[in-house]
Amino acid sequence: MTSYAHPEVLVDTDWVAAHLNDPNVRLVESNEDILLYDQGHIPGAVKIDWLAELNDPVQRDYLQRAEFEKLLASKGISNDTTVVFYGDKNNWWATYAFWVFKLFGHKDARILNGGRAKWIAEGRELSRETPSYPQGSYSAPERDDGTIRAFRDQVRTHITQGGTALVDVRSPQEFSGERTHMPEYPQEGTLRGGHIPTAANIPWAKAVKEDSTFKSADELSELYGAQGVTPDKDVVTYCRIGERSSHTWFVLTYLLGYPKVRNYDGSWTEWGNGVGLPIEKSYQG
Amino acid sequence: MDRQETIDNLLDHYEHPRNHGALEDADVVIPGGNPSCGDVVTIYLKVDAAADTVERITFEGKGCTISQAAASILTELVEHKPLAEIDAMDFNDMIDILGREVVNTRPRCATLALGTLKSAIHKYRSDRERAV
Fold first, then answer.
1. pTM (two decimals)
2. Mutating which of B8, B34, B41, B65 best tests the A interface, going by the most A Cβ atoms within 10 A?
3. Fewer CB in 10 Å around end: N or C, chain B?
């Protein structure tokens, strides 16, 4: 069996349980539901609210360097802290926070394999106590938007070039144009349905097993390789706002070791509203 | 209420929802949904026609903590209230009732139940006009 390309970025629940009091480790919970943390979290974990803390409050963008430094210091995180992310919904929002941390080059970021659901399923301890840590010392470089982040015009060029792959990680209904949001979610926010031409549709959650842990490297390699998403290509992932696709970005980059993967966070809410941008739509309803 | 008390109140309503479940003899049953986080709330409304007030209100739903707690809090708040008073309620009022400091970044979740209730009242009136 092939092993993950970067197994060091994944930790399991036993590892977390053994490091609950490790001052060099900071557990960070990032959920879609912002009060889930308050219902109980892994003892010692701090919360990061992806919307309120990672996004610019006005412009559609992420926080800037100074804000990032301030945020991390306030959570007791320093440059050399091992940050372990976990969260609800197969670590969907945990990988999103992980990706934002990587935009600022945080060195030692990891994911709790299985996330919040696995910790709870194993009957492990939860706490409602909000921990307090001494202020950290954090010095970040300017946000790097060129290595792991893609923008609309880059994607427009990307789809005309050889040696590239584009992965639409949304549901098949969103991909076909039948819906502009996930099934069971009300449909609004995007004017057009469909997908970006040349995209392969590989829904993000296919990368995890029923217990929320990641599939094996062999299974993942088959999942993406079968649709032409191979390590020799320049790969871009996208979804609706860039969060589901951060999960696939994580899988391709760290579990399969693809050397060039970028997440297009503008995603369908930008592309599907863009004037004159090419769209493929298979849904005929 | 300070921030922690606000959170505790929301969690209490989420974990022990008031007026939860279907209402057999409701005049109006109307579902509402939230695009930002997939929450759904169905309002069951029975009106005291003579007084034009809420006689009984219940809800069912699923979704994030704020959306479900807000529905529970709202049903407690509006029971026996004149419909006109609910008409006049602003979404900002609901955010203040829940605790602006905590729910401010999730306004859609916070106001889903109120929006759905307003739609229920609108439907109740439309149905009555049609019946006349």
1. 0.89
2. B65
3. C
